[in-house]
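INFO batch 0412 | record 1 of 1 | parsing
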Amino acid sequence: MKPLVSIILPNYNEIENLKRGVLTKIAAYLKDQVYPWEVIISDDGSTDQSLLFIKKFVSKHPHFHLILNKHAGKPYALKNAIKVARGQFLLFTDMDQSTPIDQLAKLLPYTKDGFKVIIGSRGIRRKDSSLIRQLASVVFLLARKIFILREIKDTQCGFKLLESQLARRIFTRMRLFGRVNQAVGWKFRR
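INFO prediction complete | emitting tokens
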């Protein structure tokens, strides 16, 4: 059965989060859902023990899949996962689960209203950030609201639900524009 949602988890050296049990929590939540789903873990050339951990987990969970990529950054890992995803909708979420998987229940109803992109938000303030970071965040938020995306509070939240055909069109426009040491830069052309 074709999945309603393909959950895409980029991975780069996430062994600490994996040891915390994030995949087990994601699996536990999803097994209770009435819609068909799949999880695609897209590795970005990890050099820690996360690949061994993920391979073991995937071998015991048939709806979880692992794809291996060269180290080229999160956008590249997302792009390659999108290519193999079968779901009608794609959920991008981070391995640290800063936005927990159960928040997917808040995004899915918007798909019935015809929305093709639904962006999660963690709110403006983070409890664990320094005063300087909070101040910089407020300045960035105000500057961004003046120029673009006025309605979105948290553009940096990794929790995004997209209609899969639209995601494919967007990511075909992605191009590499440079590499500095280990950092990889990507841009989207018009």
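INFO post-check: The chain has one domain: 5-120+157-188.
INFO record closed
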